Description:
Layout (H helix, E strand, L loop, with lengths): L1 H23 L4 E2 L1 H11 L2 E6 L5 H11 L2 H10 E6 L6 E4 L2 E4 H7 L7 E5 L5 E6 L4 H14 L2 H30 L1
Parallel strand pairs: 1-3, 2-3
Antiparallel strand pairs: 2-6, 4-5, 6-7
Helix pairs in contact: 4-6
Amino acid sequence: MKKLFFRFLILSLGVTLLTAVSFAKEPQWKNFNDGLAQAKKTGKKVLIDVYTDWCTWCKKMDANTYSDPKVREYLTKNYILVKLNPEKDGEVSYDGKKFSAADFSQGMGINGYPATLFLKSNGEPITVLPGYAEADMFMHVLSFIGEVCGPECYRTLLIKTSLRRAASFLTSATILSRSII
Length: 181
């Protein structure tokens, strides 16, 4: 009976230790203001997961992408992680001004969920990755922005993103003007 008790005790301790180790590896998500402050102190880039509670693809991103061991490890090592829910989170401070989470998200060009916003450690935008991303593809994006992409690359990403938005706006405006005329 004592042997059975000790086996159970050892098994319980093992499971507890494994659980503690796996929780320690989980990404530490921060709120917006704390995350940006920490990024300025550490010099790490910021990854902002922009999500909503009702978004199925956001939940899939959490379950499949952010929970992937390689993604978790890379994120924890290289980025300050922020979760932002534009429908529920309050005011955020950005560039010396206060915005609602929804206004900030829209100002960064986010118009659907999930979206992943990348910022430099000083808060300057790098780019937005719209939509769901599988873990393997997401790792390529993370490592490109985290390691390969230098200052000139950021400018190129911003210019391409701005051109895509402008083209999308012009296309929408053209369609709208044709329907009015």
